[in-house]
Amino acid sequence: MTLNLQRLQTFIHVVDLGGVTAAARAMDVAQSSVSAAVGQLETDVSAQLIDRGARRFQVSDAGRALVDHGRALLVSADEVLDGVARARDAPVGGLLRAGATTTAAEHVLPAALAGFLASHPDVDVDVTVARTEQIVAQVIDGALPFALIAGVSDDPRLYCEPIAMEEQAVIISPEHLLAGQRIDPAMLRGTRLLLRERGSGTREHQLQLAARWQIPAVQHSTLTGTSAILAAVAHGLGITCLSRSVVDVHLRAGAVAEVEFPTPVPPRAISLISRPVRTPSLLEELFLDHLKKGRSA
């Protein structure tokens, strides 16, 4: 029996993401390609890995066993390649995998990757961007080697190191009478606070701020993604608080405006999370060293 590691990795993506369609979207490949890889893997191991008769996506007992052992096998394969990379005298290359929440992926991670890839042009990058709870879960179960999240994690299964502090900005429509002013939160009575979707660390941060502001008769509305919230603010649907690095270009363009409160919104941490029991590869070590030096410079 021959076990193809790429097919195995694809199948694990399918399981982690809950189906072929989601996996194909995340991998940016055709759904038929993912289905074919899973089908060929089933042939390779002579077992049905997915229960196709179930109404919802369901992994068979054989599929769960393959995922459990397959994760360890992929880690071992990475360690073999890492050992070879450390032994040879050649430019560092290979695939750098990482995770990021939306906030971290919009500024901190792209800036770090740009500098790193300029020094290591033979490196390819695969970044998974998702809500905080999804990214944390994937780091815990080993699907991702490390990730950048907005805020901090107190999960005992993770090592969490704040590496940067992001300034925050409260934004409002530029047409609002209070746009650009320093005001008491009570002056926004009856306004609508625009929140990120459930499972987002930014949403939890926004709710904590709302409890502190105590805006009278405030309403809460949920929108999925930062772009949707920025568009809603620009059209006068309400106010929100986001990282300044995210909203700065919109402030400069006049699409949104800022309001200031007597007590400024404190900066928010951007943190690196990983499993303490996992040894990073050479490529990961180099990138993380670059990331930390760049943020401390």
Secondary structure layout:
Elements: H1 5-17, H2 20-27, H3 31-45, H4 61-87, E1 94-101, H5 102-105, H6 108-119, E2 123-130, H7 132-140, E3 146-150, E4 159-166, E5 168-172, E6 192-195, H8 201-213, E7 219-222, H9 226-234, E8 240-243, H10 244-253, E9 257-259, E10 268-274, H11 282-296
Parallel strand pairs: 1-2, 1-3, 6-7
Antiparallel strand pairs: 3-10, 4-10, 5-8, 5-9
What report would you give on this structure?
The strands form three sheets. Strands 2-1-3-10-4 form a five-stranded mixed β-sheet, with helices on both faces. A three-stranded antiparallel β-sheet has the order 8-5-9, with helices on one face. Strand 6, helix 8 (201-213) and strand 7 (219-222) form a beta-alpha-beta unit. The protein folds into three domains: 1-90, Winged helix-like DNA-binding domain superfamily/Winged helix DNA-binding domain (Arc Repressor Mutant, subunit A, Orthogonal Bundle); 92-164 and 267-297, Periplasmic binding protein-like II (D-Maltodextrin-Binding Protein, domain 2), CATH 3.40.190.10; 168-264, D-Maltodextrin-Binding Protein, domain 2 (3-Layer(aba) Sandwich), CATH 3.40.190. It contains eleven helices and ten strands. It is an alpha/beta fold and 297 residues long.
